[in-house]
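B., you asked whether I could sanity-check this one before it goes into the benchmark set. Here's the sequence:
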Amino acid sequence: MGKGLVGLTLHAHLPFVRNPKHPRFLEEDWLFEAISETYLPMLRMFNKLRSEGVSFRITISLSPTLCSMLADKLLQSRYVEYAERLLELGKKEIERTIDQPEFNRLAKMYCCMHKNNLEDFNELYRQNILTGFWSLEDSGHLVLITTAATHAFLPLFQEYPQAVKAQIELAIMSHISHFRRKPKGFWLPECGFYPGLEKILASYDIDYFFTASHALTLADKKVDRGVYAPVNCGNGISAFARDYGLSQAVWSEDDGYPVDRVYREFYRDIGFDLDADYLRPYLHAQNIRSFTGFKYWSITSKSNTKEVYDQELAEKRVLEHAGNFIYMIKRKTQSLENSLDRPPFFSIPFDAELFGHWWFEGVSWFEQVLRLMEKEDQIELTTPERYLNNYPDNQLVQPALSSWGNKGYSSVWVDGSNDWMYRHLHRSIDRMTELVERFPDQVSLKGRFLKHAAREVLLAMASDWPFVVSNGTSVGYAQHRLKEHLHNFNLVYENMCRNSVNTEWLTRTEKKNNLFPDIDYRIFAKS
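And here's what the prediction gave me:
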């Protein structure tokens, strides 16, 4: 049968959190933490492998909201200030821990990381790290794809195809704007799929998308090759289902690799442990504690008693876990040898922010996996695009409604805590469609007004707000953001009904929510 084919996919996404009104804004740290702990370390790792001649090719989805923030001059300058503050804190920590060798080594490690981040960000990427991803795609090491414009959970908008189309069309336009290429693949936010979505994707010349495993196991017919090959959904588009078992080796909260006791504890941070006066220059407000990224403890156990983090021990465990991951793939390949008529394809997707941010050692693990795969005779790292070129004939199947969220469907994004959101979201989509029908050819000031109305509806549709509310974290912020976007849209709607435009408000709001500058408000048309 040949080698087992492995498709590693990373999905990078953050909600749009830009707020120019405040010199420092707490939620912007979500972006800065991801840049410092995931994106820059991941790019360093990829570049190192490329310079050493290590062969690899993986797929990365970069969300339009994330790309907008990474390309934004204000947020770029604020990231530099953020990294400089942490470098200064690192130097203070080296002094504070001078008589504590175990902590001092870690303080030096963090200081070195922030120094490297600043150098890469300013000198290598000229403050726009999208150029780093673009370069790696040019050299054939990455395949860049996109996802819905504001990462809306699409199954909950299936009765509003104009809104689903708007999310997809604008995402493709944004990707072309940033990377000068049209994406061939599409990451469905949260792997959220519903029957009929494949037709919309195909109408935009998308070749493939990703689903949860039960999208195929519960499909309209028995799937001949299980989740070990894509299916043809008709209209020239294919679906790749996640290999749940291999993914869980990393994802499982109970026994996945990241919960190993020797790895670094995420939640124990000096931002909550040390004296407030000492930390004040690095916190957002006098009485608000927050993460600094300086974490000195290992997971150890579920109790509050922790051991000091041992980086050398953690790196040894990384090698063990990378080897185990390869072993699992090889074993699974062997077990399928007599069951399939072609090599199995293992689709293994992850959220990018897991690596480095949530799982500190994750970037090192990923590097070792790529190194080991290159040496393996039984495993070949490939991409969905290459697979479809080699195996264009696949079973015609209608995948089932599904997501990779908890319980496999939509319960995370619509439950008793957040279901109230959707009557307002659906109403705003109806009203936006009405505006398009009433004002189909507006330009100049009214055209800007309508463009911004479309922008606000899309921002309100983001899956992040119901997700955060359902999880019970930053609930007030998520509710505020949803209500703010709905308020902004309704203000435009009411003004257009009165045939008036608040120019001062429009200019101020455009400066705050400045993503998708070339948006065409008519993407919400029904036809």
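One thing to flag: Residues 97 and 104 are 5 Å apart (CA to CA). Otherwise nothing jumped out at me.
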